[in-house]
Each structure stands twice: as C-alpha cells, then as structure tokens.
Amino acid sequence: MNKMNQSVLSSDARRNSEVEVWYSTSLAPGGSQWFSGPHETEHRLSQQPGLSWTAPEAAQSPALLVSPEHRYQEMLGIGTSIEETTIHNLAKMSPDKREQVLRQLVDSEAGIGLNLIRIAIGTSDFTAEPFYTYNDLPEGETDFELERFTIEKDIELSIIATIQQLIAIAPDVRIFASPWSPPAWMKTNGDLKRGMLKEGQAYTDALAKYYRKSIQAYAQHGIPVYAMTMQNEPLLETDYPSCYMPPERQKELAVALKREFAAHGLTTKLWIFDHNFIDAMGYVTPILNDPEGFAATDGIALHDYEGSPEAMSELHAAYPDKPIYLTERSVWGAEGADRIAQYFRNYACSYNAWVTMLDSRIGTHQWMGTPGPTLFIQDADQADNSWVTPEYYLLGQFSKFIRRGAVRVGSTYGSAETVTNVVFLNPDGEFVAIVINQSETAQPFRVLCQGRQFADSLPAKTVATYCWK
Predict the structure, then answer these.
(1) Which SUPFAM superfamilies does the entry link to (predicted)?
(2) Which residue of 72, 100, 392, 395 has the lowest C-beta tally within 10 Å?
C-alpha cells in the first residue's frame, strides 16, 4: 500500500516558516486504470520550501485578495462514507492492514485527518449483502411497537466493530447517518426498493420510533451519532433501497422524530433534504416556512449530481440560521478540488466523499451504474494489497489542514484559467489557503493579505495548501 509522502510534517514542525506550502498533483482523474494498480504522481502532500511575505508590489501575475475581516460559515468537518461495501472489503484484510487503512483516513498525523464520517441506517446500494433494515418482517405483518427491532446484522457484518475501531483511532471523529429506506412493512409497495411511506400518523410515528431506536442502539455500542438525514435522496425511486418522500411528509417526520429524541434525551441533529442542488429550494421551503418544521430542523443536507453549488448560497440567504452540509459527492482531479472549494465558497460547512474502498474488480456494490475510482482500491485477489488514488492526497490538501471550528474568510475566487482558491481561519489563528491550478501549465500568482503578499508558481493540475499565522 502506498504510504503518505514522508515529507508531510507534524503540525508543530510546519509552524516554523512564514508561509508553509504543500502540493498534490492530479493524474488521470476518474480513470479506470486506477482499478488495475497504483501509479505514482509527482506531488503527494509534498512539503515545498517555505515562502516569505514581502511588501506589496505591482506584478503581471494574478492577485488573490484575502479579507480576514469578512467571515462566513463555521466548518463541521471533511470526510467520507464507511458504507457496507467499504466495510466488506476492509473485513477481508488482516487486522494490521485494516488498522493501517483506517489510520490513513482519520489520523491527523499519519493520515489525512478526515473527521466526519457518513454511515447508513440499514443498507444502501453500496453493499455486498442482500438489502435489509433493522425491522424486516414476513410479508403482511406489522410491528408498530418495534418489538422485533435489531441491529444484529450490523454486528454480524463488522459494521459496528469497524466504526468502533475508527473512533478509537480518532475520538474527535463525528458520525452522521442516512437511511435509504424505511422497513418494507411501512411502505406502500411492501418493498425496500421504490415506494413511499404509507399515509397516516401511525406510520410516521413508527418510522420516527425506528430511527430513534437506531440512534440508541448505536449509542449502546459506544457510537454517538451526531446527526442524521431522514431519507437519502427523497425525490428518487429506483431499484435499490429508496423511498419517495415529499417535503410535507418529511416535515411531519422531522417533527415526530424531534419529539422522540426529546422524550428519550437524545441530542442527535436532524438535517433535511439530502438530495440535489437543483431541487433544494423547492424542497426545503415547505418545511422551513412552517414554524414546526423550522424548529425541528438543525441543518440542510445537499448532494451534487444535478444543479449548481450556488443553490447553497440561495439557501443561506433565505435561511441564514440553518447550516448547510454537502453530504454526498465524489470528485476527481484538480477540477474536483475546485468543485470542493466552490462548495465551501457557497456556505457548505462540510464535505463528504461517497464510498471509500472498492476492489480492483469495482466491487462489491449494487448501484445501477459503474462507479469511478475511490480513495482506496483493494486488490481483489490479494486483500491485504491496496493502493490510494490521487484523490486521497487532493482531499488531504483540505482535510489535513482545516480544523473543526475553522471559519471561511473572504477571498477573491480567481479563475479556472489561472488559479482558484478558498481560505479559512483555524480556531488557533492559523490561516489556511487552498489554491487550485486546473490548467495545463504552471500558473504564477500572488496572495495579498493584511498589507503584505507572498508569491508562488503552481504547477499544472496541482492543488496547494498555504498556511500562515
């Protein structure tokens, strides 16, 4: 397995220069060749010589203007998903190799410090197992009291043990959960695929109780669930676990679930929607314009498969008190890094990649399409052999340096033809600027901040992180 470039230094060592610099290079973004084996890239979170601040001066190179007095959203975290496909592949590994992969994900020194992990309530489409929930019954039966509720399947499949191990490595990791379908007996078609939640308060209350018991069951195993969405992609019905849930019904569920949480002393936050930019405003307004829906909602979750990140700025302008989270989208290359920067420039408080480890035969999943390469690829014939794709390092350019509680500060965007950027202020007073060159040639630029500047020339298809106090 590829190890992180040894030039990555501890957080203490990297405070010595005026401006500390790291590079990661893109290569064949999203290409299928990553499933056949590793390929070396020029820069992999490689530390560069430090840069010095100088007095401002005229130059031909573009200037990125940083305005620390302009402060925006506070960051919750950056992470990935630990869904059953990833866990199925991890379970094939020896204990030492499995520990190594998890440490590369969440350890802030030996890895890239991912600190926000998405899990599924029941199964998603990325699973090697038959689809299931925690309350599966023979056809025709009901269980409104949830007497047959159990997460035993999650224990059998090492889901619980894997998440426990991850938390043991990085106790500051926060977990959020998303269901792909209610139990089949609660649905109009009696199936985990497609369908809707049956009409009536009895079914709304039963589903709220089901989610409350899910959160409690995980807590009993030492896994606190910080937040949950109430339905993955509620506008989608398809041939894997899914459930169409219009906003009016999600509002009813949010109110019922908030009531369940309060009655049982749970503080798990509720994030509404969990679907694409293009439908966001139309979905959340019926919920948030209703006083009960507004009170029950702790945040808005978004996916990026259709529409523009600017939809998040529209949501922020309409509902400034409701944080926004980018809960699902994997991206590749320098263009993907720029897309992540755009999420943050449009008020996202988090970013989560989707699916962490497929094997070299692109397995094992039950999605309808062909996935792109994941952060880790496992050799399907030798489970202990795995490698990282460049996206591991490109994501690390963000996650290894931006701390929970950091706030985004003002900066001019730049351009795709030169460089683009996003800038944060960490809780300890350190600035972190991620600068992205999507072009085919090196791009010189300057950063102007608080009466001084530094300059660099960023190689083609490269993402850089600059840190200064």
Answers:
(1) (Trans)glycosidases (SSF51445), Glycosyl hydrolase domain (SSF51011)
(2) 72
Element (H, E) at 133: none
The C-alpha R_g of the chain, in whole angstroms, comes to 22
Count the helices and strands in the chain (H runs, E runs).
Answer: 11, 20
The residue segments making up the domain with residue 451 are: 13-72+408-468
Find the mean pLDDT for residues 66-87. Answer: 98
118 pLDDT band, cuts 50/70/90, is very high
Q: How confident is the model at residue 17 (pLDDT cuts 50, 70, 90)?
A: low
Q: Mutual orientation of helices 201-220 and 247-263 as an angle, nearest 10°?
A: 50
Residue 37, sorted as left (phi over 0), alpha (psi -120 to 50) or beta, turns out to be left
Q: d(Cα 88, Cα 84) in Å, to the nearest integer?
A: 6
How do residues 292-313 score in pLDDT, each as one tens digit?
999 999 999 999 999 999 999 9
CATH of the domain at 366: 3.20.20.80
Task: Outline where DSSP puts E strands in 173-298.
Answer: 174-179, 225-229, 269-276
Number of domains in the chain: 2
User: How many Å apart are CA 124 and CA 133, to the nearest integer?
Assistant: 10
| Assigned domain for 421 exists | yes
Phi first, then psi: what are they for 299, rounded to 5°? 180, 170
Residues sharing a CB contact under 8 Å with residue 47, sequence separation 6 or more, in sequence order: 7, 8, 9, 14, 20, 21, 22
Residues 26 and 110 in one domain: no
Cα–Cα dist 347/77, whole Å = 13
Q: Is residue 179 part of a domain?
A: yes
Query: Closest by alpha carbon to 226, among 149, 171, 155?
Result: 171
- Structural domain ending residue among the three candidates 404, 421, 453: 404
Give the domain-ending residue among 404, 435, 456: 404
The residues pairing with 19 across neighbouring beta strands, listed in sequence order, are 51
- Please check whether residues 239 and 92 belong to one and the same domain: yes
Amino acid at 22: W
Q: How far apart are CA 195 and CA 390, in angstroms?
A: 39
Whether the per-residue pLDDT at 13 is higher than 60: the answer is no
Tokens describing residue 105:
């994900």
Q: Same domain, yes or no, for 335 and 413?
A: no
Angstrom distance (rounded) from CA 378 to CA 389: 11
